[in-house]
Every structure is written in structure tokens, then in C-alpha cells.
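Researcher: Here's the sequence for the chain we discussed earlier.
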Amino acid sequence: MSLSLSDIGKAVLETEYAVRGPIVARAQELERSGKRIVYCNIGNPQALGQKPLSWVRRILALSEFPALAQLAPGAFPADAVEEAHRLIEGSKHGLGAYSESKGVRFIREAVAQFIRERDGIDADPDSIYLTDGASKGVQAALRMLISGPQDGIMVPIPQYPLYSATITLYEGKQVNYYLDEHNGWKLSRQMLEESIAEAKRFGVRVKGLVVINPGNPTGSVLDADNIAMIVDFAREHGLTILADEVYQENVYRQGERFVSFAKVMHDKGETDVSLFSFHSTSKGFLGECGHRGGYFEIRNIPADVSAQLLKLQSVSLCASLPGQVTVYCMVRPPKPGSPSHDEYARERDGILGELKKRARLVADGLNSIPGVACNEVAGAMYAFPRIELPAGKTDSEWCMALLEAEGICVVPGSGFGQIPGTAHFRTTILPPTDQLADVVDKIARFHASYR
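Model: Thanks. This is the structure I predict for it:
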């Protein structure tokens, strides 16, 4: 007898991932039938027209095929050739061989230097793990924390479905804490305390706290004081912090800046709170989603625990070597005065400048639509507007109807979590600026008729 659903584990059957759910499946069907679809469902910059950085692709090409420098003399800037040579030497065996399970040490040393320069604090290469995108790091941390069905992980609502899906898959308990939509999606100590008290009332042993900063899907940015409050809360309740910081380059609002959890914990002299912090080559201004590059850094984790983490990582042998090289490109850009620097800076600033314009365009455009309310997009790559719906209708039905009518693929707020009785959708700000303006116009036209 062939394999059937009855043979599949309950945890797998109950796992859901909204950003690639049934609405996306229907979008692909419509596209195959000839309908033009604008995919605003996922942060996939190059699929929506963002060009890869020349520096990254040159280093990748030369690292994979070093003879290119001789076959095409003068085609590659000298600093790119030198950097690729260093990478190949640092990897010892090139990109076709396994690396250490933590990743190539030469690259981990570069990540440590990046953290030192970003935060002005020390960083240890042995506390850095290179991963296939940030997602694999998140999954490793959650696998370590969830040891039984009563182990809980606090997750912001709205959240990125990676967390809900992985917690379900590992048979833990998701403990929701709500972000304050009317206060720029900030989180408060009161909300955190109410959430953990409710979980404990039902016998849940809360072990971890997820914070996404800048926020996905909310577009919010936390300041140092807010982060310090979260660290204090984690210490008092014995929680490990999982800091999702993959959008740290994506901060648009005047006066806002990214502050890392590692920096705040260092400045507070905090040594009792364990921290996993995650970064990725998929976001920022690189947008190299397909290369699956990422890393996580651990702090305040005992040696015997980190040994178990290394064992877990070694099961997969190592992260993809091209992904590891892409991480190196992210943390070691061309230096000022080098042959590639001006081009790199121009491409970087162009991408971030356009994203800033689109963040404003989306928020202003959505707020001009009767029955739609959207907070300012201060960071990340998304907007999460609230929508008023006719009685009995759901945001999933609204999103499917929008797809069928206008060819715009967005994700219902229910896939991220929301306060009961409210309805939202998440859209990216990634389509080209002229196309994004058209997306907003079509949403306005559709919502007027739907209401």
C-alpha cells in the first residue's frame, strides 16, 4: 500500500506557512494560465526586479571558477580578484568541499569583525555559526529549546510564520504576545507579563522569547530603551532571547537606527541572559535569497550547551559554501579608496534609496483608501495594513478575491496572527516604484468594490 496521510505525523500535518500557502498556489495556477501576477507575498527582492550587487556576483564567480581572472584579464577589479583569492585560501579546499560544521573559520572571523565594527563590542568567531539562510539558524535554536510538548516560545503577534511553523513542527507551545498597532507596533512590558502569566496558568514552561527587529510584518523599529526592557524581562523570567535582526540595513524613518540586542546586553553588563541573534544575506540591500547565506551568533551560552548546538549543526555537515561566501561579501564590502568601492556604494545607496521611497509610497497610498489603515513603514520590507471587511468576510477571502480580480498576491493577516476581530494583509514594498504605485491603485479600486 502506498504512503497515505494517515502515515504522516500530526506535527507535520498541522504545520502551516502562510507566505507560501493556498493563495500563492492559486497565483501560480493563474500565472500558468496566462494571467499577469505581481507577487507581493514574500521578501524576494531579485524576483521583483532588484539587481544583484556587482561586488557579490564577481566574488562568487571568481570563487567558484578562479581561472576567470586569467581567462578574462582586466574584466575583474583587482580588489575582487584579491578577495576571491583570500576566500579560496581561507576555505582551504575551495567551494566544492565541506567546511567545518560552524562554517569556514576565515569567514566567521570576518563576521566577528563586522560585529565589532557595527557595535563597538568584542565578538568571538567560535560563537558564530554560518547557516543556509537565517531560517536554519532559527530552527536550530528552537530545536535546542523545545524539549517537550509543554515547552513554550513567546512569539510577537503579528509574527513571521517561520516561528509558528517551526514551533508546531517541533511540538512545542507558541505563546503569543501582542504588539500595539496603535503605538507603531511597539511592545510593552505589560503585554509581555500578561502573556507569560497566561501561559504559566496553563502549565506551559516558557523558555524562549522571539523578537523581530526591524519588524516583519509590521515594519517597526525598536529603540535601545525598548530592547533594554525586553532584556530585563528575559532575565527576570529566565528566558533565552532569539533576536531576528535580518532587516538591520532596512531602516527608513528619519531619526531611527538599528540597535542590536548584543550591543544593548553588552552595555548593560548582562551576562545571565542567553542570546541567539540572526542575520541573513537575503534581506538588507543584497537580496541574495537564492544563495541561502546566513549566520547566528550566540552569547552567554555555556560550553556544554554550545557543544550540543555544534553536534546539531554537524548533522547537516555544513552550510552551503556559496552561501557562506555571500555572507563574507555582506560583512566585508569594498573598502573606501579600493577599485570597487564607488560602484558598490552607488548600487547600495540606490537600492536603499528606492526602498525608502517605496516605504513612504505604500503607507501613504494605503492610508488614502477608505477602510484601510496602515502604520508608517519605518523599517524592513513590508506593510501590514488593517482592512475593514463586510460582515462575515475574512481576510483570506479578501486576499483571494484581490488575486482573482487584480492579479496581486498578498498574504492574509491571519497567517501572521492578529488581534481577534481585526483583519489585515501583508504586502512587500519590493516591486519597482512605478509598478508599486499601480499595485496601490488596484488595491484601492478592488477594496471599494469589495466593500
